[in-house]
Description:
This protein has 20 helices and four strands. By secondary structure, the chain is mostly helical.
Amino acid sequence: MHPRIILSILGxxxxxxxxxxxxxxxxxxxxxxxxxxxxxxxxxxxxxxxxILWMLRTKKTEMRxxxxxLITALFYIGLGLFGxxxxxxxxxxxxxxxxxTFEALSGLTTTGATVLxxxxxxxxxxxxxxxxxQWLGGMGIIVLAVAILPMxxxxxxxxxxxxxxxxVKDHKLKPRIKETALSLWYLxxxxxxxCAAGYWFAGMTIFDAICHAFxxxxxxxxxxxDDSLGWFNSAAVEGVAIFFMLLAGINFALHFGVLQxxxxxxxxxxxxxxxxxxxxxxxxxxxxxxIANTPQSSDSFIRDGVFHTVSIATTTGFTTNDLSTWPIAAxxxxxxxxxxxxxxxxxxxxxxxxxxxxxFRQGFREVKRLIHPNGVFHIKLGGQIxxxxxxxxxxxxxxxxxxxxxxxTCLILTTTDLDFLTVFSAVGACLNNLGPGLGDVALNYQGxxxxxxxxxxxxxxxxxxxxxxxxxxxxxxYWKH
Length: 481
């Protein structure tokens, strides 16, 4: 373990993050808001703290997986705490430290759960900052998922070592990751610009288009309006959102490969993408059917069904209707779909579709073994044989994921007077980085007590960091030499 390397890298990240505070300062100047002091002070605190840590750097620059676990966890924890500073200092928000941290980490983990009310009336600079947090967090997720987590062997992510465009296959974090990260940044930025242009052509203002492009590509779900995308009441806006939510839910390494080889057929032959898109189509049909058979049904039931299916299944969390008016089977089914989430290497949350695919194939293999006890059956994904080590890792991840969900659910149920539907949806929404819940958290999380909010903050981090990243550093053996 090399603590000076870890602290210096965190310092560098904080200094880089502090530069993002200059953008909301620019927005405050454009809209003539008195928030320059708020973001200016946050910039000074964040940059200074990062500079102090950066001065601890050493000539030794090689970082192994052992340091990678801690860097990965502290990356979000540190940026979340410093990211909360502007919200804590903003006079109009009057947020407690708990609420400020909840909102900041909800943004950086692209969860989209909010404790704020009256969003329509908030200053533009604050609104922009919330959306920017999600966009930065989304890019961080992609770099972690595609460039770092595969080498750490987190929950079977090593399956993607051979398919990613840049990471090396050993256990050292080498400079080639820089090339990977840079390529992914260009791709991520390009999607964001295209999404913003689509929203603008669909009728949004420039400000709303940029802000919603940030949260759409990040699959975050924050909006500049209390009614989310429902405020626009536009089929064109929803169409743009559906397209880019689906796009952002696909492995960015696959996007990179498609652009590099100029072959769209790569999408069609990828087994994870086929299951991802196919399951969304089937689910959209069920949800549309449920909506059509309600007393409040309108002619737009297909539009509403498709939009909310894509939004919830990809763990984005945009809404255009009050889901509580639908038959309870519809929102529950949508919440369960968020557990699968999007593809690995995307900005989506959840268990990830490729893990679900491997679990199903392992189940079918066990059925075959019952019929043919002496037979040898391999599980293949994309034409490659998947090793039993990876299958074990996927099953281990799934078991820990569900166990953690049940433990946090039971813990909150025993320490609060919240009803089961509220707790079930709140924990599920935070663990899957979805955002909106049901019951008392259908609109926002403001009414929850402080302890419950901190438990949900921890749940967001566990879901975003693939659980094992945090569990590893919490074990005593990790800290032994």
